[in-house]
Design goal:
This protein has 138 residues and is of the alpha+beta class. It has one domain. Helices cover 32% and strands 22% of the residues. It is built from four helices and six strands, in the order H-H-E-E-E-H-E-E-H-E. It has helices spanning 4-19, 23-31, 70-83, 110-114, and strands at 36-43, 50-52, 60-62, 93-95, 100-106, 119-124. The chain has a four-stranded antiparallel beta sheet. It has a two-stranded antiparallel sheet with strand order 2-3. A hairpin with a 7-residue loop joins strand 2 and strand 3 (60-62).
Length: 138
Amino acid sequence: MPSNDETQTGNVQQNLTSIVPDKRLRELMDSDPDAVCSLIVEAQLPPRQFSFADKGSKRLVSSESGESPAGRDEELSKLADELKPLSENGEAIVMSSAGAVVINAAAKQLAKISVLPGVKAVRENRKLPPVRIVNPNG
């Protein structure tokens, strides 16, 4: 029978696999945990609502009148605030339309990011490959 630690480790590993679907990104945690990646952290948000402009119309309009509802914005801001301490530069860029936050973080931070409430998925920003930051002062 597995111990509580083994069961908990298995649950964390399973959660990490579902939240971080990119196998290469998960492997980077073990092979080079200090590698800094640009990450897109997708938030768990309520779906947007759309309807037809007029009865019989084929034109869809957002029930949000072109603006993100306060609930979505609040959730994204809250997630960004939780991600800032995990970011290498202390910044988190909110992408409201995409429902995501972009941060630069070390691969070793992935486990902490994946268990934050409101995180749907973590994906590598493919534009910028992982880099190893070397401190010139030692």
